[in-house]
């Protein structure tokens, strides 16, 4: 019987299926029927102990379908993914894998996704599954249930070796970058030659072409069966700067997934050593590597700097970190549940996937912070500065953002059930795929916000600033606009049945063909407004 994994979960192949070695890893996805000129590619990176592909031939893709040891074979390019079922399959014979290979990573990229303005927001039913290639019986499956917004690349999952056993982990990590990002991450010598122009951006086709040329040249120069994997002395004797297989680095089961930004870090510092240094009076820990550290319940008194520190997957739950400097810190996947981060500096910090449930972030500075897919339910963010922060796909259920600054923030696909956004500054915020039903937007500034992509039924917009807003054709039934500023707003054909517009400023608003049956218009200001029947109110 197949086992369904969730993001981050693992399956021990060697233990659960000890009597066979031939498996298939199938990847599938569906692209919106309206999408045009799509090309999605699955690729495989076979990594040595240092977390890098040893040479070009261990990058398996549609132009290099078989690994040199014969262990991995790619089914070829399926491109569009507009049919149900498996789209591309990778066949693996565990018994043939070269002993120097310790990990196999499966990624999917949208060919020229950024150039074509395509992303995985238009892809549904994405999955990766492992099955016995001889009996065809499915072993495990991972369905990507999370919503992606701008990502053009996905790391689906990985096979890795630990204590002589092969295991599989569901990863599900999205990246807003193309194939080149994976090449840079997993190929130590940057297989695609660097341009003399350092700012040159290579598209996927050029990345593949150059890789293919190098593979062809290598295969001409030497027979595949005579090609040893050149694992460096440094990779064997030293700890890798950017380990991909976290099981070789940490004993704990939880691991960081996206470590591409952590190159050149020293080995992680243990909690005991860090706390001893803190006890001895050290307060500047800029750039320190505390990946996976357990500091739950600890108090770090102001002033203290953890700027640029690596705290990925750290346990900081219930810690007291008031006014801490975490500018540019990596807190990806960290546990910050109930942590006190009041007035903390988190400018440009990476908090993607972090658990911030019930955390106190009142007055914190989160300018340009990455909070994508973070858990922020019941989190306090009163008067926090989230200017241009990335909150896409974050869970903000019952979060309190009273008077928060969210100018230019990205809330696409975020869950905002029962969120308090009263008096928040939401100018220019992105709300694609968001439902604002029953959200408290009293006094919020919604100028230059595209509200045509959201649902506002039953929301409270008391004293909200909606001047000049385009609300034409929207269902605004039951919405409270008490004392709201709707001057110059476009409300043509809007459904305002039962809406509370008492004391609202509707001067010069366009209400032509609007349905306001049952609406409360007491003391509303209508000077110069175009009424539902087309007349202009004096």
Portion in helices = under 10%
Order of helices and strands: EEHEEEEEEEEEEHHHH
Q: What summary fits the major beta sheet? A: 6 strands, mixed
Largest beta sheet: strand ordering: 1-10-9-3-7-6
Q: Which runs of at least 5 residues are low in confidence (pLDDT < 50)?
A: 78-84, 190-202, 219-265
Q: What is the overall number of helices?
A: 5
Give an account of the 3D structure.
The chain is mainly beta and 538 residues long. The chain contains five helices and twelve strands. The chain has helices spanning 13-16, 179-186, 204-221, 233-237, 271-279, and strands at 3-5, 10-12, 22-31, 40-47, 59-60, 72-74, 88-93, 103-110, 123-132, 138-143, 153-162, 165-175. Strand 11 and strand 12 (165-175) form a beta hairpin. The chain is globular. Residues 78-84, 190-202 and 219-265 have low confidence and may be disordered.
Task: Provide the descriptors you would attach to this structure in a database record.
single chain; six-stranded antiparallel β-sheet; 538 residues; 15% strand; six-stranded mixed β-sheet; mainly beta; 8% helix
């Amino acid at each position: 019987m197949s086992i369904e994994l969730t993001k981050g979960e693992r399956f021990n192949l060697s233990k659960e299926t000890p009597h066979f070695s031939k498996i298939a890893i199938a990847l599938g996805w569906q692209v919106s029927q309206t999408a045009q000129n799509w090309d999605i590619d699955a690729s495989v990176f076979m990594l040595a102990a240092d977390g890098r592909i040893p040479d070009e031939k261990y990058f398996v893709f549609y132009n290099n379908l078989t690994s040199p040891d014969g262990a991995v074979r790619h089914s070829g390019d399926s491109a569009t993914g507009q049919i149900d079922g498996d789209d591309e399959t990778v066949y693996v014979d565990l018994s043939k894998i070269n002993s120097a290979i310790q990990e196999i990573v499966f990624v999917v990229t949208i060919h020229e996704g950024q150039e074509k303005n395509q992303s995985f927001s238009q892809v549904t039913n994405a999955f990766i599954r492992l099955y016995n290639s001889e009996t065809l019986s499915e072993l495990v499956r991972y369905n990507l249930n999370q919503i992606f917004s701008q990502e053009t690349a996905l790391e689906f999952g990985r096979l890795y070796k630990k204590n002589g056993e092969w295991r599989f982990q569901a990863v599900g990590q999205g990246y807003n970058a193309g194939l080149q990002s994976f090449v840079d991450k997993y190929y130590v010598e940057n297989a695609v030659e660097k341009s003399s122009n350092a700012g040159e951006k290579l598209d996927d086709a050029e990345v593949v072409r150059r890789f293919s040329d190098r593979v062809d040249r290598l295969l001409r120069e030497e027979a595949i069966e005579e090609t040893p994997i050149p694992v460096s002395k440094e990779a064997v004797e030293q700890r890798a700067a950017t380990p991909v297989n976290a099981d070789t680095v940490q004993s704990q089961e939880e691991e960081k997934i996206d470590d591409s930004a952590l190159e050149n870090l020293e080995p992680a510092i243990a909690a005991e050593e860090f706390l001893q240094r803190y006890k001895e009076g050290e307060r500047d820990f800029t750039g320190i590597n505390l990946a996976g550290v357990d500091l739950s319940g600890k108090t770090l008194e102001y002033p203290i700097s953890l700027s640029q520190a690596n705290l990925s997957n750290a346990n900081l739950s219930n810690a007291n970190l008031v006014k801490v400097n975490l500018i540019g810190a990596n807190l990806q996947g960290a546990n910050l549940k109930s942590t006190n981060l009041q007035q903390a500096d988190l400018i440009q910090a990476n908090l993607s996937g972090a658990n911030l449930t019930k955390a106190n972030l009142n007055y914190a500075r989160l300018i340009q912070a990455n909070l994508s897919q973070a858990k922020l339910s019941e989190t306090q963010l009163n008067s926090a500065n989230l200017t241009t922060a990335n909150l896409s796909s974050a869970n903000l259920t019952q979060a309190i953002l009273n008077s928060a600054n969210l100018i230019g923030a990205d809330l696409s696909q975020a869950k905002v059930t029962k969120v308090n956004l009263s008096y928040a500054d939401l100018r220019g915020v992105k709300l694609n795929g968001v439902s604002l039903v029953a959200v408290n937007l009293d006094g919020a500034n919604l100028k230059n916000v595209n509200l045509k992509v959201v649902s506002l039924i039953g929301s409270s917009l008391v004293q909200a600033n909606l001047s000049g807003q385009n609300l034409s054709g929207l269902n605004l039934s039951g919405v409270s606009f008490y004392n709201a500023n709707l001057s110059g707003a476009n409300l043509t054909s809007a459904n305002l049945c039962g809406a509370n517009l008492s004391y609202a400023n509707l001067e010069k608003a366009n209400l032509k063909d609007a349905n306001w049956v049952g609406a409360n218009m007491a003391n509303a200001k209508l000077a110069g407004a175009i009424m539902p029947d087309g007349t202009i109110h004096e």
